[in-house]
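Exercise: predict the fold of this chain.
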Amino acid sequence: MPNNEENISTLQYMQRYYQNQYLTLERNIEESYSYINEMKETQVSLKNMDKVSSKEILNPIGTNAYITAKTGKIESVLMGVGAGFYAEKSIKEANEFVESVIDRQNKFIQKLTEDKEGLEHTLLKIANNLDKISDKT
């Protein structure tokens, strides 16, 4: 039968492991919210496409570098669809695609949040067990 020192050491190891998992989930949630915000900015741009059609715009060509360009009638955009691939989509299709990405990210955040809550419960149990063992010594 393991002694209290071994139990404490094992529980402390488990606690550190779960704390690292918890921090990873928090970072993933933050990154997902950031991605959603970027996609919402894309939505705003897509909704305002008719306002920039046949107008001069600043077009980024690198870090802090822009050129002035005149747009034609904007009927479609190139959208990153994953794995470095792009697809030409109508404005309506692009809006639908962005909305589906946001929905998917929200579901992912929900799952991560549930996992995080489970880890919180596990960490609390470990802390209680550590307290019980410490009280016995």
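Check your answer against the key: The CA atoms of residues 22 and 118 lie 9 Å apart.
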